[in-house]
Amino acid sequence: MSGNPKLHYINGRGRMEPIRWLLAAAGVEFEESYLEKKEDLTKLQKNGSLLFQQVPMVEIDGMKLVQTRAIANYIAIKYNLYGKDLKERALIDMYVEGMFDLNELLMGYGYQPADKKDQHFTNMMDKTKNRYFPAFEKVLKDHGKDFLVGNQLSRADVQLLEIILMAEEFKPDILAKFPLLQSFKARISNIPTIKKFLQPGSQRKPPVREEEVPKVMKIFY
Amino acid sequence: MSGKPRLTYLNGRGRMEPIRWLLAAAGVEFEEVYLETKEQYDKLIKDGFLLFEQVPLVEIDGMKMVQTRAILSYIAGKYNLYGKDLKERALIDMYVEGIADLMQMILMFPFSPPDAKEKNLDSIKERATNRYFPVFEKVLKQHGQDFLVGNKFSWADVQLMEAILAVEEKIPAVLSGFPKLQVFKTKMSNMPTIKKFLQPGSPRKPPPDAHYVETVLKVFKK
């Protein structure tokens, strides 16, 4: 046993990607075990590894953690990415929850049936441009520092960068009206651990391709 | 200004109910503002009160907090309902997240089209009896303690209690295969702050009815 956290999920972004980002930002090396077919999931369910029969699951510090937020919370506190007190944590939580909502939309697009894709896309881009990015642009403006909360890197910054890059994959000029988000993106991308994660060969996963979707559906449904 | 937390939401359970439960369990008095019209909601947005244009909104300790989980985490942390260390917190987080998934099904149920209601009710019953309740029955059986985590009352206990009662409203005999959960339910009901919350006249809201559904659709109409 290596002592590194071990991630159990499909070989793709989905609900595990924010966790990969957090571990990478914290400079923590991790291993991955990929579900390729339904039997891989069934095996984990049968051997009692999955508290609610679901992945993501992360083996860390002797625990088999499930539920994306529970895993992310644990990693964030352990590696000091959760603010310095209860009030900073409250701000981080608010921002991150908004980001999780947007992540659902962005991540979910690839899995929509063909006849729902257009409507999903429109809704997704509308929320990105009119609800979430304006909110974070304003936070950066009002707070006036390099980071979203307090004076140090937190999970909120990591998660925001992830969301920005995902949105840009759909619309490269999406940050056109958000100058502070542009400089935020440049700044956070240059943090050594994050810069490393953004390079080819890292454990960052690509967006799901249409051809892969049926295989994923077979594993979970 | 009274210093009490102030909750802004519709006059019904929805996404605010777990927050009412947690504040009540912690013995914290709170005020409520009810959204009844689209105009009230639009005004909140225009006045910049809602970070992501959404309720629940809880004004607490000088903050305008939104996002249900952020609010619940803050309350749990503040009132010492979040375990004693990182590992207990991880357990509490896993349990409340699982329960939240079950509660999401109950939350959405009143909005299902009539022809899907029976199927959705079956799904709630299936998930409660095969996925979620067995987990908590096992947790309680294995450590033999009164509370889910660390032998101490926590957010996880409050959330489980709320879920048990919500599922029972739809499926009255749902706890029949879960003796430990039955004992748990009785114990929780007898805790002074929860007992008070379960009495008529408390801030606890009734199950959603047609009028509630109508108000939701009206207030949040695009």
From TrEMBL, chain A:
One biological process term from GO is: xenobiotic metabolic process
Keywords (A to Z) from UniProt = Transferase
Q: Which PROSITE patterns match?
A: GST_CTER, GST_NTER
Q: Which Gene3D superfamilies does the record match to this protein?
A: 1.20.1050.10, Glutaredoxin
Q: Which top-level group of life is the source organism from?
A: Eukaryota
Does Aminoacyl-tRNA synthetase appear among the keywords?
A: no
Q: Name one Pfam family in it.
A: GST_N
Q: Which InterPro entries match?
A: Glutathione-S-Trfase_C-like, Glutathione-S-Trfase_C_sf, Glutathione_S-Trfase, Glutathione_S-Trfase_N, GST_alpha, GST_C, GST_superfamily, Thioredoxin-like_sf
> Keyword Transferase on this protein?
yes
Q: Name one GO molecular function term.
A: glutathione transferase activity
| Domain GST C-terminal residues, every copy | 85-208
Judged by the first EC level, this protein's enzyme class is transferase
Residue intervals of the GST N-terminal domain: 3-83
E.C. number, please? 2.5.1.18
Q: Which family does it belong to?
A: Belongs to the GST superfamily. Alpha family.
What is the designated name of this protein? glutathione transferase
Name the gene: Gsta1
UniProtKB/TrEMBL annotation, chain B:
Q: Keyword annotations for this protein?
A: Transferase
Keyword flag Transferase: yes
| E.C. designation(s) | 2.5.1.18
**Name of this chain's protein:** glutathione transferase
Query: According to its UniProt record, which protein family does this protein belong to?
Result: Belongs to the GST superfamily. Alpha family.
Which gene is this protein's source?
Gsta4
Any idea where the GST C-terminal domain is?
Answer: 85-209
GO molecular function term, any single one = glutathione transferase activity
Top class in the EC scheme: transferase
InterPro entries associated with the record: Glutathione-S-Trfase_C-like, Glutathione-S-Trfase_C_sf, Glutathione_S-Trfase, Glutathione_S-Trfase_N, GST_alpha, GST_C, GST_superfamily, Thioredoxin-like_sf
Mention one GO biological process in which this protein takes part, according to its record.
Answer: glutathione metabolic process
List, for all copies, the residue spans of the domain called GST N-terminal: 3-83
**SUPFAM superfamilies xref list:** GST C-terminal domain-like, Thioredoxin-like
